[in-house]
Sequence to fold (604 residues):
Amino acid sequence: MTLDIRFRHHFPDFALDIAFAAEETGITALFGPSGAGKTSTINAIAGLFTPESGRIAIGGETLYDTATGINRPARARRVGYVFQEARLFPHLSVAANLDFGAKRSPDPLPPAERQRILDMLGIDHLASRRPRTLSGGERQRVSLGRALLANPRILLLDEPMAALDATRKAEIMPWLERLRDEARIPILLVSHAIEEVTQLADNVVFIDDGKVLASGPAEDVLSRSDLSPRGAFLEAGAVIAGEVLSQDDGHRMTEIGFDGGRLWVPRLTAAPGRRVRLRVKAGDVMLSLEEPRGISANNVIPATIRHVGETGDSPYLDVALACGGAHLVSRITRKSGERLGLRPGMKVFAVIKSVSVERHARPAEERASGAT
Amino acid sequence: MLHSVLSDAEIEALVLSLRVSLVAVAFALPLAIGAALLLSRRRFPGRALLDALVHLPLILPPVVMGYLLLVTLGTRAPMGHWLEATFGIRFIFSWTGAALAAGIVTFPFQVRAIRLALEAIDPHLAEAAQTLGAGPFDRFWNLTLPLAAPGIIAGAITAFAASLGEFGAIITFVSNIPGETRTLPLAIYSAIQTPGGEAAAARLVALSIVLALAGLALAEYAAWRVRKMLGT
Fold:
């Protein structure tokens, strides 16, 4: 099921000009700063907001098209929408909330599928409770279940974790990972949190100031250092995909293998073979012409300079590196760059001070088979 | 049991009062919900006029309301004449007229309570319902109405209690006919006007107080039950 979105709208002080396509299954993140137009975009898909012009189609079915005058009402679009604040119906039990969309769906799920979703979200035991008595994380899971049980063609998640504290976020994250791996429909995730996006998204659409600035695989988009027109919103860095190789329980460290070498990171609770994503900030990568010895950093990776990029008027340079098939970015001062005589093609050693690890639990085999 | 305390005429007044109030509230309630929906959800030309019209009975003396009803629905008034000739409906000198007067005078109480309840509903819930496939009528019936229920019940009970006490509009519009339009307040008035009627008046006053307190308690209880049921 392909998602094709293209629309324009002029607000009094803000213009939206959005165009992107999203593929089949997996999570596509609409990523960007607050007020960039991300929520308006999914509202346009859901039919809660009518843009001035454009076309929105899911899997070949047109929901909105100003050229032909098609505008399906929200209730007929079969879009699953999980709002930031859950928006459960307070006068209904959890069971009745879950059934609300299912009862109205033109194509309700078979009982086995329904049970699979309830089990996947771990909400079966909440059926007789009232929304008011649930924790924030439970509410979001029920809200996810309510949307999924209506058997939607696409799932829209509007910052589903923004209203939750860190503990609750950690609580709901595994459910979202399961959802991503098991759902058979495309998922659009609106988020302004880089950790969330690195951890969950397969593809990223970077939106700022009402425009799509970049879209593509998460590793590529999140590694670009030129996507931060609003200053420090997206700190320069690179995302690399790897796999857990071994655990060093004595030192509480985990070894990650990737296309380009190995990295030691603070202990991850993931079995060997598990796929993970790492985001390495450019500021945490130092460069050395010779292989450094006797330093505290655990990770020294041989790399080749791809290009040396200026960062405007700042005293810094962003040096793009290739380590095998993986890419890294190092932010060093202009002064160091000149002293070392850095230029594209040079062999260097990247010294990585720290790595922020984003678990990415999609099993390798499922990814290889592309899921259905 | 009631007969040991009250005379037949007094019981008649009590039953009539309850009937008049019940009918008044039952007929006015759907209209009040409609008016409250229009006033809280829609912007349309004439909205201010509707708002003023709904509140008119609250600021006009009941006697004036009764007079206005008399001149529009009396048998010699064109509209009253037409209603009687076409449908055989006659309000004048009838308990239905008393119910109409009570319903109109207490209408603002219902609209105000319901409107407050409607405005307290999170409009985002309707968006969620839309994405789950609920159309406008579906949303009204399954979302708006249950969520506004505490306000609707409170409005209805307040209007019922106020109807029990309505005097001016009823006596002006449909007069004071025993067994037909003589509700409790009118019966109290008549008892006071009658030499030696002080005891009867005192009994009826006590009855009115009991009814009012019971109504208040019932309103509180109903609101509590509904809130518990709704889980809000």
